[in-house]
Design goal:
The complex is a heterodimer. Chain A is about 65% helix and about 5% strand. Chain A is of the alpha/beta class. In chain A, strand 2 and strand 3 form a beta hairpin. The longest helix of chain A is centred in the middle third of the chain and has 42 residues. By secondary structure, chain B is an alpha+beta fold. Chain B contains three helices and five strands. Chain B is globular, with a radius of gyration of 12 Å. Chain B starts with 11 loop residues before the first strand and ends with a helix. The model of chain B has no long low-confidence stretch (mean pLDDT about 80). Classes of the chains: A alpha/beta, B alpha+beta. Strand 9 of chain A pairs antiparallel with strand 4 of chain B. Bound molecules: guanosine-5'-triphosphate and magnesium ion. Magnesium ion binds next to helix 2 of chain A.
C-alpha cells in the first residue's frame, strides 16, 4: 500500500466532519433514486420497479469526478406530507437537515405528477438540483422536454438522466454540489391571490422563535394541515396557532374545498401547466409489445395461469441445471472429505471432514440452486411484474383478510424472508403490516427451496416439488386467514401505481445478483462451514447422540423419523440450508433414500419447510413487530410444522 | 355514475373524489384528481381492484373496488361531438 493511500484511509474516520459534502436523493416512489445512487456508489441500495422498494435510507461515500461525496438514498415519497412509515423516514430525515443539498429526482415519463413534489420542495429553503430521470421512457412515450425552460421556471439546475445507463449522473452531482456551496432559493409557486394572502397573514402571525428562512415554509405547512409543524408552532405560541387555523378554515370555506385539499389542488394545477409548458409530444407514443404483454399477464384467467406456468418452468430449469451442477461439484468434495478422514484419524480428521463438508456443501448444494433463484428474483423485481401480481391477487388476498400490496413483499419472501418482513413497511396500515410480517416466515425462501429441490426433487421428481409449493401457498393462506380473524380491522382498499414494464440492462441485474451472492458467500457460507465443523466435533464427542436421544420422543415417537435427524433440526434454526448439510453429515451419506423411507423424507421436509423461522428472520421480526408478536409467530410456525409433519408421517404407519 | 359502472377503455371525466379527506389526498398524490380524464383499463378477478389509466400522463393506477365506487365520473359527450 502506498503512503498516499494510507493518507486517504486515515481521513475516513473523521469524515463525519463538514469537509465532505452530503447529498441526498429525494423523489416520488419508483422514479429511480436508488438506481442513481447505485450508479454512483456501486450496488448498495436495492432497486425494483414498484412503489416502496426502499423503506430505509442507505448511506455511502462515493468519489464523483475527483470529489468525495457522502450520498444518502431515501425512501420515495409522493409529497412532503407522509402517508406511510417509509415516507415518514424521508420527511424526518429532511427535517433534520442533514444534507448540504438535495438531488430531487423526477420521473420524466409522468412529469406533471413528479412536479408536484418539486413545487413542494420549492417552498422549503433547502438547496436542491433536479435529476430529470427516465428520459428514455419519456422518449418512448413520444415526449420531448425543454430542460432549459424547466430549469428557468423552477430556478434550480435540471439535468436529464437515464439512471440505468448512468447517463447524466455525474453532471447532476456537480450541479448539486454547486447549489450546496452557493445556495439558491428555488422560485416559489404562485398560488391565486387569496391563497397567497393567507400565506402572508399566517407568516406574520408566526412566533419569533423560528428561523427567518423557515417562516414561509411553516406558514404553508400550517395552512396545509401538517400535524408536525402545527405542533411545533403550537408549542411556541398557542394563540398564533389558533389564529392561523382560523385563516385556514376561512380559506377552505371560501373555495368550497376540504381544508387539506387547497394546496394539493393548487399545486396540481400549477404542475399541469408547467408540465404542458415545458413538454411537447413529438410523435405518437409507441404502443409497445410491453403494453400488449399485459393483456395476457394481467388477464383475469390467463394471468395467474401464465404466472404459474412460468414459475413451474423456472423450477424445472433450476432443478435440472442445479441438480446437474450440484452432482458435478459435490463428488470431488466427498472424495476429499473421506480421504482426509482416512488419513488423519481422531479429532483432526473429524475437523477436516467437517471443513470439507461445509466448503463443499456451500458450493455444491447451495449455490447451484440459489443462483438461478437470485437471478429470477432480481429480474422479477426490476421488470415490474410484482405490482401486477399484487393487482391480480388483491381480490383473493382480501378474502383471507390481507391487502393486495402485501403480495409484493410476500413474493420477495421466496428469495429471503428478511427483506419481505422489512418490505412490509410500504403498507399503509398497521394491521396489514403486522399480518404481512406474520405470514412472511411461511413463504418457502431460497434456503428452503434448496432443501425441497435437493430432497423432494431428487427423490420424488418435479411433480412433487410443485405439489410442495402448492401446499406451501395453501398453508400460508390458511394461516393468513386464521391470524387475520384474530387481528381486528379490515384491510384498506388497494391503491397503487402500476409502473410500465422496464427491461433492466443485464449489467444491473448482474450487479444485484452478485451483491446477494456475495452476501451469501460472506455470511452464510462461513456459517455453514463453522456449523459443519461443529457437527463433526459433536459427532466425535458423542454429544450429537445425547441431543438426538433428548429429542427422540419428538422425532422418533411423534414424527416417525430416524433419531439421527434430531441434531440437524437444531442446526436448522440458525439457517435452513443447514438442515440439509447436517442431514447428509448425520446420516453419513447424500443418498438419503438409502437410510430414510419416502414417507420419512416427506415428513422431514414438511417439518423443515414450516418450523421456527431462522434466526435472522426472528431478529428482523422482533425489530418490526416486537417480542410478543414474534413469540406468537414462532409458536405458530412450530405448531403448524408439527401438525402437518405428523399428518404426513401417518401415511407410513 | 362511478368508476365501477364505466365500461373498459371509455374515457370519462372525474367529477368528484368524494370519499373522505384522507383518501382524496392519496388519490391525488398518485395522480387522480377531479377534472382528470381517466379510463378503466381492466378489472382484476375475484372482485379485485380496477386498473385506471390517467389519460394526461399515461400513468396506470390500481384502485380498490370500494374506493372506485366513490369516484364519480361523467362521460365526455362534448368531446365526442367536437
Ligand atoms: N428505463 C429506465 N428505467 C429506470 C431508470 N432509472 C431507474 N429505472 C428502473 O426503474 C425502477 C425503479 O428504480 P429504483 O431505483 O428502485 O426507484 P426508487 O426511486 O429508488 O424507488 P423507491 O425506493 O420505491 O422509492 C427500477 O426497475 C430501475 O431499473 C431510467 O432512467 N430509465
Ligand atoms: Mg429506492
Amino acid at each position: 500500500m502506498k503512503l498516499k493511500d494510507i493518507g486517504t484511509l486515515l481521513e475516513l474516520p473523521d469524515s463525519n466532519g463538514s469537509d465532505i459534502p452530503t447529498l441526498a436523493f429525494v423523489g416520488q416512489p419508483n422514479c429511480g433514486k436508488s438506481t442513481l445512487f447505485n450508479a454512483l456508489a456501486g450496488f448498495k441500495a436495492n432497486t425494483g420497479n414498484f412503489t416502496g422498494t426502499s423503506v430505509e435510507f442507505t448511506e455511502s461515500l462515493a468519489v464523483v469526478g475527483n470529489r468525495r461525496v457522502r450520498l444518502f438514498d431515501l425512501p420515495g415519497t409522493y409529497s412532503l406530507n407522509p402517508s406511510d412509515e417509509a415516507e415518514a423516514v424521508t420527511r424526518r430525515w429532511l427535517d433534520e437537515r442533514r444534507a448540504d443539498a438535495i438531488i430531487l429526482v423526477l420521473d420524466a415519463s409522468v412529469l406533471s405528477r413528479s412536479l408536484e413534489l418539486a413545487l413542494e420542495m420549492a417552498e422549503t429553503d433547502m438547496p436542491f438540483a433536479i435529476a430529470l430521470n427516465m428520459m428514455d421512457d419519456a422518449a418512448r412515450k413520444g415526449i420531448s422536454i425543454d430542460v432549459e425552460l424547466l430549469s428557468a421556471r423552477l430556478g434550480v439546475p435540471v439535468v436529464p438522466t437515464v439512471a440505468t445507463r448512468g447517463t447524466g449522473v455525474v453532471q447532476v452531482v456537480s450541479s448539486a454540489l454547486a447549489v450546496a456551496s452557493r445556495p439558491v432559493q428555488a422560485i416559489r409557486p404562485v398560488y391565486d391571490r387569496d391563497v397567497d394572502m393567507a400565506i402572508e397573514s399566517v407568516e406574520a402571525l408566526l412566533p419569533a422563535g423560528l428561523e427567518p428562512s423557515e417562516r414561509r415554509f411553516f406558514a404553508v405547512r400550517v395552512l396545509e394541515g401538517d400535524a408536525d409543524v402545527e405542533a411545533r408552532v403550537g408549542s411556541l405560541n398557542r394563540e398564533a396557532l389558533q389564529a392561523a387555523l382560523c385563516i385556514r378554515h376561512e380559506l377552505a370555506v371560501e373555495h368550497g374545498w376540504p381544508e387539506d385539499g387547497v394546496f394539493a389542488s393548487h399545486r396540481h394545477a400549477i404542475a399541469v401547466n408547467l408540465s404542458e409548458a415545458v413538454s411537447k409530444v413529438v410523435r405518437k407514443p409507441v404502443r409497445s409489445k410491453r403494453d400488449r404483454f399485459d393483456s395476457v399477464a394481467m388477464h383475469p384467467v390467463f394471468g395467474p395461469l401464465a404466472a404459474f406456468a412460468a414459475l413451474a418452468g423456472f423450477f424445472a430449469m433450476s432443478f435440472f441445471v442445479g441438480g446437474a451442477l450440484s452432482g458435478l461439484v459435490a463428488a470431488p468434495f466427498e472424495h476429499l472429505g473421506e480421504a482426509l478422514a482416512g488419513r488423519f484419524p481422531g479429532v483432526v480428521g473429524a475437523v477436516f471432514k467437517g471443513l470439507v463438508d461445509g466448503l463443499g456443501g456451500g458450493l455444491a448444494i447451495v449455490l447451484p440452486y440459489l443462483l438461478p433463484l437470485l437471478f429470477l428474483m432480481a429480474l422479477l423485481e426490476d421488470v415490474g411484474y410484482l405490482p401486477r401480481a399484487a393487482f391480480l391477487m388483491d381480490g383473493l388476498l382480501h378474502r383471507i383478510g390481507l391487502h393486495g400490496k402485501s403480495a409484493v413483499p410476500l413474493i420477495m419472501g421466496y428469495g429471503c424472508n428478511v427483506p419481505a418482513i422489512v418490505g412490509a413497511r410500504a403498507l399503509e396500515s398497521r394491521r396489514d403490516r403486522l399480518l404481512t410480517v406474520l405470514i412472511s416466515p411461511f413463504i418457502a425462501c431460497s434456503a428452503r427451496t434448496v432443501v425441497i429441490l435437493a430432497l423432494v426433487g431428487a427423490f420424488f421428481g418435479l411433480k412433487w416439488v410443485i405439489a410442495f409449493y402448492l401446499l406451501n401457498i395453501l398453508v400460508a393462506a390458511g394461516v393468513g386467514r386464521l391470524i387475520s380473524s384474530f387481528v381486528p380491522g379490515t384491510p384498506f382498499g388497494l391503491l397503487m401505481d402500476i409502473p410500465p414494464y422496464r427491461i433492466p440492462p443485464f449489467r444491473s441485474v448482474a450487479a444485484k445478483v452478485w451483491f446477494r451472492t456475495r452476501s451469501f458467500l460472506l455470511s452464510a457460507w462461513p456459517a455453514l462451514i463453522v456449523a459443519s465443523v461443529l457437527m463433526a466435533l459433536l459427532e466425535f464427542a458423542g454429544i450429537d447422540g445425547m441431543i438426538n436421544s433428548f429429542l427422540q420422543p419428538f422425532t422418533v415417537t411423534l414424527l416417525g423419523l430416524p433419531a439421527a435427524v434430531g441434531v440437524t433440526l437444531v442446526f436448522g434454526i440458525f439457517r435452513k440450508e443447514l438442515t440439509l448439510l447436517m442431514l447428509f453429515q448425520a446420516l453419513g451419506t447424500t443418498d438419503v433414500s438409502s437410510v430414510m423411507s419416502p414417507v420419512q423424507i416427506m415428513t422431514f421436509v414438511v417439518f423443515v419447510l414450516f418450523y421456527i423461522p431462522c434466526v435472522a428472520t426472528v431478529i428482523t421480526q422482533v425489530r418490526e413487530i416486537g417480542w410478543k408478536w414474534t413469540g406468537i409467530s414462532v409458536l405458530l410456525s412450530a405448531s403448524v410444522a408439527t401438525v402437518l409433519a405428523f399428518l404426513v408421517s401417518l401415511a407410513g404407519r | 355514475m362511478t368508476l365501477l359502472d364505466v365500461s373498459e377503455s371509455l374515457p370519462v371525466k372525474v367529477v368528484c373524489v368524494g370519499c373522505g379527506l384522507g383518501m382524496s389526498r392519496n388519490l391525488a398524490s398518485l395522480g387522480i384528481h377531479a377534472g382528470d380524464i381517466v379510463s378503466v383499463v381492466r378489472r382484476a378477478p375475484f372482485s379485485g381492484p380496477i386498473l385506471v389509466r390517467v389519460e394526461s400522463t399515461g400513468a396506470n393506477i390500481a384502485v380498490g373496488r370500494e374506493m372506485a365506487g366513490r369516484i364519480t365520473v361523467e362521460t365526455e359527450r362534448h368531446r365526442d361531438a367536437s
